[in-house]
Amino acid sequence: MTEQELINMNVLVHPLLLNDPAKRSGQIGTIIDADIRRDDFTVLFDDNRTALYSSSALIIPKSADRIYDHAVKHEASISYELRQVLADYANHIEYYGAEAQKGSLRLVQANDSLMEFLTDPLKDMLEITRPYKIGR
Asked: Of 9, 5, 1, whose CA–CA distance to 44 is shortest?
């Protein structure tokens, strides 16, 4: 994931963030500036105020593929109905894109038990896409 890909991405400030000087824990915002190397992400909120966060404090919506994969991977431990809902939601995200992904953040705000199915920590996603250095 590049800095450019992060700009305009909807994020949720982790609801369990204990030390949040901006007092935005549990709120949805949009990344307007990203410095991956320094782990600094500026988030704009609906009231036009900004706050600086590290990747460990931010949660991003899963892609449609990741929602579907998660449902399949955990099919033994979740109900058939929940798998169907997640598959339908993945299709919804595939069709409607960013606005549907923002909707998944709203669902997580209302029901944090859906967090593992609909979102990923930004930090984890950056580590997945970080290139490996070979040699020195």
From this structure: 9
- Mark 115-134 as b/e (b = at least 16 C-beta within 10 Å): bebbbbbbbebbeeeeeeee
Number of structural domains (the chain) is 1
Asked if residue 14 lies in contact with residue 30, where contact means CB atoms within 8 angstroms, the answer is: no
Maximum distance among all alpha carbons in the chain? Answer: 50
pLDDT in tens, 66-102: 998 988 898 899 998 888 888 888 888 888 887 888 8
* Residue 129 in this model has a pLDDT that exceeds 50: yes
- Is 72 part of any domain? yes
Q: Which domain holds residue 69?
A: 63-114
32 lies in some domain:
no
Does the residue 70 lie in any domain? yes
Question: What pLDDT does residue 128 have?
Answer: 56
